[in-house]
């Protein structure tokens, strides 16, 4: 039974490790320490391996739990009820938690408050669009974090952040905010602006 507990623990750890790079930006935003957001981004290339390991470990744990037990011809009734931590119910809870952790990057956006934007642009000549090249983003959670920080600034009309392209395209009123302020907001998340292109 100790092997089963170790398998369950290993499954939990690998599931958490697989999504740690995406969980950290949300936790950093909640804690108000947005600069820590990219701390675990180095784990992103290993995510597929962690996912595979989680599935393998939990699959083996389920196999161990569900495989038929050897029948011993004994007239005595010594079958005792397993402890909760060794039960199928506990393994089911751990498996559900692992699935929630592995899927975290796909629903992490719900944890970021939507900015209520009310921009009135008096002069269209003040509208400017700039593309910022950003390094360190690895998932949708990173995008949401950068978007959240940029949209805190006054004068932002729209912002589109893509971790796949490694950029943010921001349209803003340059009489209310500057390129430097936007760059500073992006850098405050822990990701780095590596290039700026004015469109």
Write the layout of secondary structure elements.
Blueprint lengths: L1 H30 L15 H20 L21 H15 L1 H4 L19 E9 L4 H11 L5 E7 L4 E7 L5 H9 L4 E7 L1
Helix pairs in contact: 1-2, 1-3, 1-5, 2-3
Would you give an account of this structure?
This protein has 199 residues and is α+β, with helices and mostly antiparallel strands. It has 2 domains: 2-71 and 83-110, no CATH class; 112-198, 2-Layer Sandwich (Alpha-Beta Plaits). It is 45% helix and 15% strand. The chain contains 6 helices and 4 strands, in the order H-H-H-H-E-H-E-E-H-E. Strands 2-3-1-4 form a 4-stranded antiparallel beta sheet. The longest helix is centred in the first third of the chain and has 30 residues, at 2-31. The chain is elongated, with a radius of gyration of 24 Å.
Quick structural overview:
This protein has six helices and four strands. By secondary structure, it is an alpha+beta fold.
Q: What are its keywords?
A:
199 residues, alpha+beta, Alpha-Beta Plaits, 2 domains, 45% helix
């Amino acid at each position: 039974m100790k092997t089963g507990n170790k398998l369950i623990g290993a499954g939990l750890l690998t599931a958490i490790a697989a999504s740690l790079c995406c969980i950290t930006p949300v936790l950093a935003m909640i804690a108000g320490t947005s600069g820590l957001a990219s701390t675990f981004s180095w784990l992103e290339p290993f995510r597929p391996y962690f996912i595979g390991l989680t599935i393998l470990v939990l699959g083996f744990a389920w196999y161990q739990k569900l495989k038929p037990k050897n029948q011993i011809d004994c007239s005595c009734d010594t079958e005792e009820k397993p402890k909760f931590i060794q039960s199928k119910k506990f393994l089911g809870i751990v498996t559900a938690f692992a699935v929630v952790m592995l899927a975290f990057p796909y629903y992490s956006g719900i944890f970021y408050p939507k900015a209520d934007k009310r921009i009135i642009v008096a002069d269209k000549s003040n509208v400017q669009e700039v593309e910022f090249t950003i390094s360190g983003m690895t998932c949708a959670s990173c995008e949401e974090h950068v978007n959240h920080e940029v949209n805190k600034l006054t004068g932002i009309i729209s912002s589109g952040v893509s971790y796949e392209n490694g950029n943010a395209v921001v349209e803003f009123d340059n009489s209310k905010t500057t390129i430097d302020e936007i760059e500073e907001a992006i850098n405050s998340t822990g990701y780095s602006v590596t290039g700026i292109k004015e469109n």
